[in-house]
Each structure stands twice: as C-alpha cells, then as structure tokens.
C-alpha cells in the first residue's frame, strides 16, 4: 500500500511542480541527471568501514567528501583532536557570501559498525531498497548534502552564499566536550542549523529530539557467610542495587520522553570495570553475601529541566539504603536535548510549504520521543534547528539497515530547494 502511495505521489509530482520557480525546476532536473553518479558515490563511501574508532576509515570517507566540496568552491579543512580522545577528527567546508541566511549543515562520517564487525557492503535489494553499513545513518544523509549542493552549483546558485558544512567524525561515540568545542563555536556564527540525520520519509521532519547522559551506581555492603543475610549482615549489595533499579522503574517509568536504561550490572565479592573497553569482571560465590555491585546506564530526556528533575529523584531513591548497605550515584553529561520550539517549527512550516509546492504533500513534526540524541542538539540553544533531512530508511544501527532509494532523489531535491530558498 505504501509503495502504491509513493508511486501516486511521484506521478502527481510533475503536475504540482508548477508552483516552483524556473531556477527551482532547473535544480530538480539537475538532481535527476546527476543521480547515477550520486548513487555511485554513495556506494563507494558505504563500502569503506568508518566505525568511530576506525580513525583511518573515518578520515578516508572524509577525504572523499572533502574532494567533492573542493570541486564546488568550498574551503575545506580537517579539524584534528587531541590524541587522548582517540578520535579521527572532523571535516569542515565553508564559503562566505552576503546572500540570505548563514547556514550550518550537519552530518557525520562515522558509523556504529566498528572494523571488528563483519562488513556489509552496499547492496541493491530491489528497485526501492538498498542496504549497507551506514547507508541511512548517515552516509546517505551526507550524500544528500553533497548532491543538493552539486545541483545548486551547476546552476550557479551557490554564488555569494554563506554555508558551513560540519561533518563530525565521532557522532556515534563522542570524544566528549573537547570534541564539540569547535563545532559549537562555528555554529554560533550562523543563523540556522540543518541536520541530515535519517529522515522519517517525506512527510515529517524533526523539530525536537531527546538528549542523552550517563549514570553510574555503586553499591557497597557488609560481606560474609550467606547464612547471615537479612540479619547481622544486612541485605548485601545486589539486593540494594535491585531495590534501586526497581524503584527507578516504578517511580519514573511512565514519564513522557524520559527513559533510563541499566545497560550493565555486575555484583559479587569484588568488581572491576574498565572504562576504555566497557568490560567488567567480578568474583563471588553463592555462599558469600555480595559486598559490591556496579550498574551503568543512560538517561534520555527532552529538556534540561526534565533531566535535572529525574536526577534529583534518582538521588533521593539511592539515599534510602537498605540496612547495612550504602549506595552512591554519579551522572555524566553527554548530548543535550533539542527542545521543540516555535522557531524550529517555523522552519518546519517552510519545508511544509516547499513540499507542497513540489507536490510531495504536507510535512509534520516527528515525535521527539522516537528520536535518539544527535549533534544538532549541541547548538539548539543558539539558533533555530531542523533535523531528519537526510536519507530515509529502516533498521539503523543494525545489520538490517536499509535506505529507501525511491525517496532518496526526492529528498535531495527538497534539500537543494530548501537551501536555495534560505540563501536568497
């Protein structure tokens, strides 16, 4: 049914495109003409492993994309990071002009698929679907940016525009605040941020997305022979950890946009955890009361207010220790939330109008609770932002990741025309 709808949509496209200007129809024609080379370039970059920790692969993908921006008259540079961060760095491409809004276009070069995983090459599954590592998240989105700018350049519509393109090399596993300092400072010089993470089809864009942070729960307790649990030894560290986790779930589990996932839990007589490898070791016996427990998890939220309120409640729960146990919880900041705002929705309305002009139908705001954290959130407090403008697909972060090849050219066309309208 969905495929029939899409075919009808494409069929009606030519009828409704009369709402577009002459330069806009020329851009669309150029995008169509360039699609074979666009898809060939996508296949080339997908077939290069660029897991976040594969620094050589990230730089290789960045070099291919940098070469494309060079051809379009952008000034390109590679932002290096301290060796201590163990990250490849970032690609930046800029051009300065006096027309229209100053745009900050966001993408990322890395994927979740590290080099140690089996390689899944770019594969055409059928006439509407392609698969491959990062084909949608987000090499497809990066190629949307490149193909859109190529079409505008071919029509000499990039002249005198101000555009900064920032493709990070560690979105999937950030190197921390130091890794985003330059990103934020460059964004502050622009008027609007547009991010090209995976699109949810043609009918929605992202005006808000949740942030992500981490938490660590440490529990200590008296240890000794298991026959003395519940009496002079108290309850042990594992029971206390379970009490806390269950109370988190019971107290906060139904709050909209808030999730907290305990991704790792270990307990026993001794626990050792390696931050670099995310591996834990524990020693214990069934007849010894566990003296220590460790839980590590994430906390996802829409607003800073929601994050701080959740942290306060979690601390309160942790403080109510079972007898002869003591628990502590610590929090680490990751990616802030991108709060839905009136300014963001104005951008959505512009895309909605453009989409209707193109005959693609209305565009609504995607549910922010259904999106994870992303780089755009680092700059959301400084300017209007929009995300979800990249390639559409399913199964991201899995071996079943696919991209919708029928929607791909339409999303490139829409991106090109939106950039054109913003830079007039």
UniProtKB/TrEMBL annotation:
Annotated ranges, domain Peptidase M20 dimerisation: 207-323
Signal peptide limits: 1-17
Pfam families hit by this protein: M20_dimer, Peptidase_M20
Gene3D superfamilies documented for this protein: 3.30.70.360, Zn peptidases (3.40.630.10)
Keywords tagged on the record: Hydrolase, Metal-binding, Signal
GO molecular function: hydrolase activity; metal ion binding
Domain of life according to the entry: Bacteria
Name of the featured protein: M20/M25/M40 family metallo-hydrolase
Organism: Spirosoma arboris
């Amino acid at each position: 049914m969905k495929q029939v709808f899409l075919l009808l949509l494409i069929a009606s496209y030519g009828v409704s495109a009369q709402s577009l200007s002459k330069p806009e129809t020329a851009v669309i024609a150029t995008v169509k003409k360039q699609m074979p080379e666009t898809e060939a370039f996508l296949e080339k970059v997908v077939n290069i492993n660029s897991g976040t920790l594969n620094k050589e692969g990230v730089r290789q993908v960045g070099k291919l994309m940098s070469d494309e921006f060079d051809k379009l008259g952008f000034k390109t540079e590679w932002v290096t990071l301290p060796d201590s961060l163990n990250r490849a760095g970032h690609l930046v491409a800029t051009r300065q002009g006096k027309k229209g809004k100053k745009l900050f276009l966001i993408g990322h070069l890395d994927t979740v698929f590290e080099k140690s995983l089996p390689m899944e090459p770019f594969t055409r599954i059928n006439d509407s679907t392609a698969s491959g590592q990062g084909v949608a998240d987000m090499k497809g989105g990066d190629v949307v940016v490149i193909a859109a700018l190529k079409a505008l350049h071919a029509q000499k519509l990039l002249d005198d525009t101000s555009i900064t393109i920032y493709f990070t090399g560690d979105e999937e596993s950030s190197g921390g605040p130091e890794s985003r300092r330059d990103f934020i400072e460059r964004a502050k010089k622009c008027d609007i941020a547009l991010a090209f993470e995976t699109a949810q089809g043609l009918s929605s864009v992202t005006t808000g997305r949740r942030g992500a942070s981490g938490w660590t729960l440490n529990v200590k307790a008296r240890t000794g022979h298991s026959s003395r649990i519940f009496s002079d030894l108290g309850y042990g560290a594992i029971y206390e950890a379970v009490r806390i986790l269950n109370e988190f779930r019971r107290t906060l589990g139904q709050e909209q946009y808030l999730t907290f996932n305990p991704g790792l839990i270990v307990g026993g007589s001794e626990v050792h955890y390696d931050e670099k490898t995310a591996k834990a070791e524990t020693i214990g016996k069934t007849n010894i009361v566990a003296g220590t427990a460790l839980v590590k998890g994430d906390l996802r939220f829409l607003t800073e207010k929601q994050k701080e309120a959740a942290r306060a409640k979690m601390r309160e729960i942790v403080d109510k220790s079972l007898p002869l146990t003591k628990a502590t919880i610590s929090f680490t900041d990751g990616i802030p939330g991108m709060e839905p705002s009136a300014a963001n929705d104005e951008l959505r309305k512009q895309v909605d109008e453009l989409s209707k002009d193109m005959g693609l139908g209305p565009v609504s705001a995607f549910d922010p609770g259904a999106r994870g954290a992303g780089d755009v959130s680092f700059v959301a407090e400084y300017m209007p932002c929009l995300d979800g403008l990249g390639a559409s697909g399913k199964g991201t972060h899995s071996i079943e990741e696919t991209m919708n090849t029928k929607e791909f050219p339409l999303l490139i066309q829409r991106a090109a025309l939106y950039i054109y309208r913003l830079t007039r």
